[in-house]
């Protein structure tokens, strides 16, 4: 068992400075209790990757991370045979007959473990983070299906390897493309949105402990107002925290119009967004 | 009703509202019910949401149905004195005079606790309207009229700002917070009204009418201003998704010519014998796009959204030119420079472009004028895309001109935001125009996305 109850999740995550809400806590708890992967989707910078790291830290599990990108394939994600070493082995033992060599070169010794296989074979509790699954090609989703539903990997030369201990799987996605229904069906779905101003204030206070409570509150409220404007990219939590650090570095204790105008580049990263914010917020 | 029956009924209601809930997902939800504390409503909601709802656009509909099937309280058990007592021992919500209630509401709008209890008590007091002997109706507008939270804004702002300068950032921030809380209050009231109606006349009846279709299914012609703003926010994510899908399609498409360089390189590892051949990917087909759109009021929101989307998808086309008309044509490409502000582009478009002569849509004249002034925009590489409802106020249709234009283009398409059943009614020339340029029904974002995928 990973967690005892949603309340337990909240407590232990907040001990590692990750502030959750009811839906995060329940989903994280259910993913552990039902042994299903957790698919976290939402805009960039709302703490999807951080969630997996926090779960690993809170439960003392090891974190295995698979970063997805275009062109990711089986050899990088799952396992690969160490061809060079196999070649050496064949050349070194050239006097032996074929059957013995064949049995010899397809063994553990010549297998290169990649993140997915490592997570499956791990003996200690493991959190497997499959990051930005939407960046990978559609075929990778197919590759994941066997792992996500049965926690096993089939290697033709070795047979099926089942998980010693079911890993806790977290997938993250920025929704740049629709994931397949088959993948979604196997996962619990958690949509992470921008937090309420109250929660965002607490997050800033947890991440930037030296900031004053009043300033954190002002920051959270201002960012919430910015998110209601029609922007190309609304500021994320990560950017709010950057902003808090910027203000600290500048030694400001008050968030007035002039300060916001001078540091707007920290939170808004499109020229048109900045113009819009200046106009709407009368900076 | 037992828990199992309620679970089954809820899952059925979700399916009826258009959420694709599979059998396996229903079982997952049932399993989840065994491990969570059922008395905690928030985690019950989260458990259902994470097992059954896998698209953010389905979430609002889910929330409405959840509130109906698993209400926070029932009228029989509700005791206002007891429940109100925990939050406001000084105020009897059933008998207190209106000004005191408004004071209470003002405090709630500034962020005090107990919004839901207050909303329930207010529906109990103001929302009831007798409808025949022994029956009653519940309305949220009568609650809103009695308390009118909008009129509290000036007072609340004065209170929050307390002497600070008006019009600045502080006011913006305060306004945003109060508006957000007002919206929450309205939502709490309508949720409770729906619950009471459901208690009187059965959940199924209200469930059918209460759930709004998800954003991508909304009808362009019946869209509200707030929905349009929400849609505009979706333009860039939607464009990104479409572009990603198109790239995948191109890559998976037919293989092109032999890539000599790569093949020879790969053959080196097998002693110069080319075991595997490699092909060059085919050059993606990028059409030039000319968009001609009806910008009159009746179809404006459809035209605006489609224009935004085509411009967000610029990279998928070699060149995009846009023309707008009501009864005369003007080129509107200049309003959509890269990085332009969406809202501003739309306001400038309506103010500055010269598209109106008499102010009544005239397709015939617009087409003639387009052919005369911008006829050279259309060439053998161009795809012509016409957006409009083909309602021309009984003016001459200029079919010949359209035939000439579409013959000059590589492809021509017509997107009509009206449902097919309404084509050819009244002044619609759908079939006449549709005989020359293939006409597609395009009522919502889902249909539009499907069309664009086919086009590029």
From TrEMBL, chain A:
One Pfam family linked to the record: AAA_5
SMART domains (alphabetical): AAA
InterPro entries: AAA+_ATPase, ATPase_dyneun-rel_AAA, CbbQ/NirQ/NorQ/GpvN, P-loop_NTPase
Domain AAA+ ATPase: residue ranges: 34-198
GO MF term set: ATP binding; ATP hydrolysis activity
PANTHER family in UniProt: MAGNESIUM-CHELATASE SUBUNIT CHLD, MOXR FAMILY PROTEIN
Protein name stated in the entry: MoxR-like ATPase
TrEMBL record, chain B:
Highest taxon above the source species: Bacteria
Pfam families given in the database record: VWA_CoxE (PF05762)
InterPro entries tied to this protein: UCP010256 (IPR011195), Uncharacterised_CoxE (IPR008912), vWFA_dom_sf (IPR036465)
This protein's name: VWA domain containing CoxE-like protein
Taxonomic path: Bacteria, Bacillati, Actinomycetota, Actinomycetes, Streptosporangiales
């Amino acid at each position: 068992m990973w967690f005892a109850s949603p309340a337990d999740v909240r407590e232990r995550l907040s001990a590692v400075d990750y502030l959750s809400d009811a839906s995060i806590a329940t989903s994280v708890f259910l993913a552990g209790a039902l042994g299903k992967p957790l698919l976290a989707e939402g805009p960039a910078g709302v703490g999807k990757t951080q969630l997996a790291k926090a779960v690993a830290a809170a439960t003392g599990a090891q974190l295995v991370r698979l970063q997805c990108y275009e062109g990711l394939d089986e050899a990088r994600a799952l396992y690969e045979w160490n061809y060079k070493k196999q070649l050496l082995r064949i050349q070194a033992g050239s006097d032996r007959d074929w059957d013995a060599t064949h049995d010899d070169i397809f063994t553990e010794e010549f297998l290169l473990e990649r993140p997915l296989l490592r997570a499956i074979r791990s003996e200690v509790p493991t959190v497997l983070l499959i990051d930005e699954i939407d960046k990978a090609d559609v075929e990778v989703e197919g590759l994941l299906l066997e792992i996500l539903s049965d926690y096993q990997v089939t290697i033709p030369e070795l047979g099926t390897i089942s998980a010693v201990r079911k890993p806790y799987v977290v997938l993250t996605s920025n929704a740049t493309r629709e994931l397949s229904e088959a993948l979604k069906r196997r996962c619990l779905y958690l949509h992470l949105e921008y937090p309420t101003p109250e929660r965002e204030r607490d997050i800033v206070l947890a991440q930037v402990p030296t900031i004053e409570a009043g300033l954190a509150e002002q920051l959270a409220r201002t960012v919430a107002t910015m998110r209601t404007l029609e922007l190309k990219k609304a500021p994320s939590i990560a950017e709010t925290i950057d902003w808090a650090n910027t203000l600290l570095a500048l030694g400001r204790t008050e968030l007035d119009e002039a300060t916001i105008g001078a540091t707007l580049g920290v939170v808004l990263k499109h020229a048109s967004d900045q113009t819009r914010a200046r106009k709407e917020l009368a900076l | 009703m037992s828990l199992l029956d309620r679970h089954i009924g809820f899952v059925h209601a979700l399916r009826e509202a258009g959420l694709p809930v599979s059998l396996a997902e229903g079982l997952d939800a049932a399993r989840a019910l065994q491990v969570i504390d059922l008395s905690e409503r928030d985690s019950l909601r989260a458990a259902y949401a994470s097992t059954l709802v896998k698209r953010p656009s389905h979430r609002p509909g889910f929330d409405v149905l959840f509130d109906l099937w698993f209400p926070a309280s029932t009228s029989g058990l509700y005791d206002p004195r007891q429940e109100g007592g925990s939050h406001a021992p000084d105020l009897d919500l059933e008998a207190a005079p209106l000004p005191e209630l408004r004071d209470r509401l003002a405090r709630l709008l500034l962020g005090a606790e107990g919004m839901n209890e207050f909303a329930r008590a207010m529906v109990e007091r103001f929302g009831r309207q007798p409808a025949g002997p022994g029956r009653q109706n519940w309305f949220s507008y009568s609650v809103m009229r009695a308390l009118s939270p909008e009129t509290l804004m000036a007072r609340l702002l004065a209170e929050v700002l307390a002497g600070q300068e008006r019009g600045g950032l502080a006011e913006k921030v305060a306004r945003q917070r109060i508006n957000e809380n007002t919206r929450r209050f309205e939502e709490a009231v309508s949720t409770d009204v729906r619950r009471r109606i459901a208690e009187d006349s059965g959940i199924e009846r209200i469930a059918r009418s209460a759930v709004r279709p998800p954003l991508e299914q909304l009808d362009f012609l019946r869209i509200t201003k707030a929905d349009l703003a929400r849609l505009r926010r979706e333009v860039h994510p939607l464009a990104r998704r479409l572009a990603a899908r198109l790239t995948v399609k191109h890559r998976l498409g037919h293989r092109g010519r032999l890539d000599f360089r790569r093949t020879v390189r790969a053959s080196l590892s097998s002693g110069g014998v080319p075991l595997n051949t490699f092909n060059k990917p085919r050059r993606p087909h990028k059409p030039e796009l000319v968009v001609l759109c009806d910008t009159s009021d009746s179809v404006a929101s459809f035209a605006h959204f489609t224009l935004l989307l085509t411009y967000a998808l610029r990279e998928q086309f070699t060149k995009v030119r846009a023309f707008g008309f009501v009864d005369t044509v003007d080129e509107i490409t200049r309003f959509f420079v890269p990085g332009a502000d969406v809202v501003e582009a739309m306001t400038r478009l309506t103010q500055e472009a010269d598209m109106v002569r008499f102010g009544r849509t005239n397709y015939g004249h617009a087409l003639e004028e387009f052919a005369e002034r911008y006829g050279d925009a259309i060439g053998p590489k161009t795809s012509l895309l016409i957006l409009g409802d083909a309602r021309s106020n009984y003016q001459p249709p200029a079919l010949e001109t359209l035939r000439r234009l579409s013959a000059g283009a590589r492809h021509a398409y017509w997107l009509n935001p009206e449902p097919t059943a309404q084509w050819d009614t009244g002044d619609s020339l759908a079939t006449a125009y549709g005989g020359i340029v293939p006409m597609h029904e395009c009522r919502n974002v889902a249909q539009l996305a499907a069309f664009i995928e086919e086009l590029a």
